Amino acid sequence: MTPQFFVTTTALLVLAVIALSYWQDSRVRRAAPPAGRFVPTREGRIHLITREARETDPKAQKLPIVLLHGSFANGLDMDLDLGPALAADRKVIIPDRPGHGFSDRPEDGFRMDVQVAALREAVRTTGAERYVVMGQSYGAATSLVWAMAYPEDVAGIVLVAPVSHPWPYGVRWYVRVANNPRYGWLFRRTFIALYARYGLRRGVARALRGCRAAPTYFERTRTALGFRAGEFLYNAQDICRLYEQLVPLAARYSQLNVPAEVVAGTHDLTVLLPIHGRKLAEDLPKGNLDAVEGGGHALHHSHPERCLDAVARVDARLEIEARSPLESAFKAITAVFPQRIAPKQNAEQDPT
């Protein structure tokens, strides 16, 4: 085998994989229609999934909630286990973050304030002007930016496996390589394309082992969308440019005066509890931590009930804050006295 033959064969194989990558990206996008609708904003179109409250009495409905997905995912990831349950008594709004799923990527789209501006504009088209925001992982960091940038909109926040503070370790090697301006394009069109084709499904199954959603997760959330060459770059940009944004952000957490629930796993190897979740709960004036023993990073799938409980706690805290001082005092006084219990009927007495 001559060197020329080897070089020619290698070049042909690389070209074949690149062609496969382009075909695969096109096929993945056409595999199923978008689950929601498109909303035009100043930063491009945002794909928005909306679930209306099943509770029809407006007085019984709670504040709307916005769900923000993490990296290498889209809005369907947050809808899978949480959306239907939350829609029992409130409107649920689930966007694809800019550049992910079916949403456009604006210039400087890696900046969380740019993402939040587009998302807020899209959410307002649903009629929601005040709401709770829940975010998972990178989506939790975006939730924090949202709450600080628009305090008049955000009533409370729920932060699941949040990345919130500068960390002493770097990012994963494939994220760094994918973001490289010199050879990142080739890496995304070859290595990532092959992984998406032959390894992604097994990787998802391993990551979600034991979760109720695991058997159907890949198809129902259209995971392959996040491994298209362009979207993989956007994910890499988000992650590589996150540290520099968290440095000034973390210094301002003490100014965030809204009810905040942090749900984090003790065995999360992606976002470590002592560095992020525990420190965040301490820094937030109204922060509360629910540390899930044995929980990993995908708590919204492995322990969705803990996430729903966190939302319920935010609702309860908002209800208490909304009471007048006189009403709070009355409830405190009446709680001291035992409730009047109706006398039991005699078993021999005719109940009619």
From TrEMBL:
The keyword Protein biosynthesis does not apply. Residues 64-304 form the AB hydrolase-1 domain. It comes from the Bacteria. InterPro entries: AB_hydrolase_1, AB_hydrolase_fold, AB_hydrolase_sf, Epox_hydrolase-like. One of its GO terms (molecular function) is hydrolase activity. Pfam families: Abhydrolase_1. Keywords: Hydrolase. Gene3D superfamilies: alpha/beta hydrolase. PANTHER family: MONOACYLGLYCEROL LIPASE. This is Alpha/beta hydrolase.
